[in-house]
Amino acid sequence: MPERKDDPYYIRDYQPGDETAITTLFGLVFGQVLTEAHWRWKYLDASSTSPIARLAFNAEGELVGHAGAISLRGWRQCRSAPFFQICDVMVHPAARGQLGRRNLFTQLVRELLEGLAGRWPTAFAYGFPGRRPFRLGEYARVYGAVERASSLHRAAQKALGSWLGVRPLKWDDPRLDALWDRCAPELPLALVRDRAYLNWRYATHPLRRYQLFSLSTRSNPGLLGWVVIQQEEHQLRVIDLLVPHHLLNQALIALERLAADRGDHELEIWLPPGWRDEILGRVESTEVVVANMVWRLPIPTSEVQKDLYYTMGDLDIF
User: Fold this and answer.
1) Are 201 and 313 in contact, with CB atoms under 8 Å apart?
2) 95 φ, ψ to 5°?
3) 118: Cβ–Cβ under 8 A, 6 or more apart, which residues?
4) C-alpha dist (Å) from residue 134 to 107, 154, 159, 190
């Protein structure tokens, strides 16, 4: 896309070597460290697609803005679909403040989404901004509100019984692909949660460590579901979960028992309304907004509100 001559910034696509400036800007804007190894895992290892991002530079050649997209394998209405998670949208404090189309946030995100729509006309793009960035994106007409993400909390307890057992599972277990094939038809809009995805997202994460457990019966070792967990301050966090819808409550009872056995006080899980509303627990709103990318892209927010399956693992902050 040609840059307008009256633009105060030069905007272009990512080029190899930009990651040094990107990670530096990330630290300045978010106050957290993003190593180049972490960046490469995030943008290079997720797929065979070259890193997708729009970058803005000032007159001195300094990076002052960035909007990225992680290319992922998706599933929509029983067919494979291109998915993109929009993330690391950031503008240097000195480059903020313009209005309308000259606003750098608006320019970067619109151009990023226009590029995705041009290459992948059926693409679904989503993200998980905080409330303030979401309002900016909504004003710029690039974000549509799916919902405020909610966390559901349940007390750890051994008393309740479940006929599902929870056992450690290897990341390369071939049954993971078969389970995805069985569960996919009841997930109208979701990431492809197969063995390859689990290996990238969790097994090879450069910073965090996760544990994978199977859900099965004591009499039958067949895989009925899986769960990815983390422990944090006496809390068992359910980072990701794949289980047939009708087994969700039994799965959570089994996880309550696992949490109690490990000395945790409670478990926490994020699920969309169609799943969350059918189970008991204390629900707390978070500061995260589930956002559908609406600029030039085809999937209406009403469909995403109804169909999207997501967990903590869809976010890049857990």
Assistant:
1) yes
2) -105, 10
3) none
4) 15, 29, 42, 21
- Whether pLDDT at 3 is above 50: no
Report the run of H or E that residue 21 belongs to, with start and end: helix 19-30
Q: Which of 178, 172, 87 is nearest to 133 (CA)?
A: 87
- C-alpha to C-alpha distance for 179 and 244, rounded to whole angstroms: 9
Helix (H) or strand (E) holding 42: helix 36-43
Residue 41, SS3 per DSSP: helix
Alpha helix (H) ranges present in 49-194? 104-119, 131-139, 175-183
Q: Cα separation of 195 and 101, whole Å? A: 42
Which uninterrupted H or E stretch holds 272?
none
Residue 282, Cβ density class (10 Å: 0-12 exposed, 13-18 middle, ≥19 buried): exposed
C-alpha triplet 189, 154, 228: angle, nearest 5°: 50
Predicted confidence at residue 2, as pLDDT, reads 42
Residue 71, phi then psi, degrees to nearest 5: -80, 125
Tell the residue number behind the tokens 């094939």, with chain if given: 181
Locate tokens 């309740």: which residue? 160
CB 172 within 8 A of CB 199: yes
Give Cβ neighbours of residue 248 (< 8 Å, ≥ 6 apart): 275, 278, 279
- Cβ contacts of 301 within 8 Å, gap of 6 or more: 144, 145, 146, 292, 294
Please, are residues 294 and 143 in contact by the beta-carbon 8 Å criterion? yes
User: Cα(197)–Cα(176) distance, rounded to whole angstroms?
Assistant: 10
* Both structure tokens of 93: 């404090």
Q: What is the pLDDT of residues 106-162, one digit of tens each?
A: 999 999 999 999 999 999 999 999 999 999 999 999 999 999 999 999 999 986 677
- Close Cβ partners of 191 (under 8 Å, ≥ 6 residues apart): 72, 73, 74, 75, 83, 197, 314
Q: How do beta strands 266-270 and 235-242 pair?
A: parallel
* Cβ proximity of 14 and 52 under 8 Å: yes
The Cα–Cα gap between 96 and 90 comes to 10
pTM of the predicted model over 0.90? yes
